[in-house]
Design goal:
By secondary structure, the protein is an all-alpha fold. Helix content is 79%, strand content 0%. The protein is built from 10 helices and no strands. Helix 7 (153-177) packs antiparallel against helix 8 and helix 7 (153-177) runs parallel beside helix 9 (223-237). The radius of gyration is 27 Å and the shape is elongated.
Length: 285
Amino acid sequence: MKRKIALILLTVSLLGISLMSAGCQKLRARDELNKGVQAYKNAKYADAVEHFKEAVALDPEFPTARLYLAMSYFSQYIPGAASEDNVKLARNAEAEFMTVLNANPADEVAVESLASLYYNEAQSEASLDAKIEKLSKATEWYEKLIALNPNKKEAYYTMGVIAWAKTYPRRMALRNELGMKPDAPGPIKDAKKREELREKNLATVEKGIASLDKAIALDAEYDDAMAYINLLYRERADLQDETAAYEKDIQDADTWVEKSVNIKKIRAAREAEKGAGGIVNAPAQ
């Protein structure tokens, strides 16, 4: 009986030591997190990475440290640079963001960061096909972001930008092939090649227009979205079979340009009014 009691006491004691040790590690992990956050705020991202890596090693289920680690890798990534070290930063960021999402699929920061990462990586792709593939991956993540936050106007806007980035180079390449100058009236004059381009581009263009429409519905003064919806109407115009349909798209594109310019003027006047202390001079009699 005494032996049994002694074993129970020993087990309890060991459990207590284990819990104390685990508690100490969590405290140390939080200390490393705080040090990492300070380094991150001071843009010392390499130092921040080491602190966050230590925090994660001490407490592998510490989501805040894991997310900061991912962000520290991502903050060092240079869009468009194809160096081995830069690519490694992107892959490290990707891996850590995915770990965050495996634990919490609804982490909006991780989803948005991955979408942005793939979009930025596309800029360094040498071939158009590789760039389009990476842009398509970015779109998938922006769609996931919208599923989490339907009011994220920037996500809709970026999907519109991506739609233009995927379709414009193909159209310009075909115009060049057919001897059509960039500013020459359309639509694409070769019916067969126009149809081939239409099959590749139209669905993407339509989806881009719809995305930008949603962005503008969320922000009626979103002039950047207006600028890109103008560009996408021009993409669609060149795919039209009839001159009348082409001219209608061009007219709609011009309307969006006018709206964008007017919004800029309204915003400038508003800022000028603020600078004048809210006082607007009366018009001359």
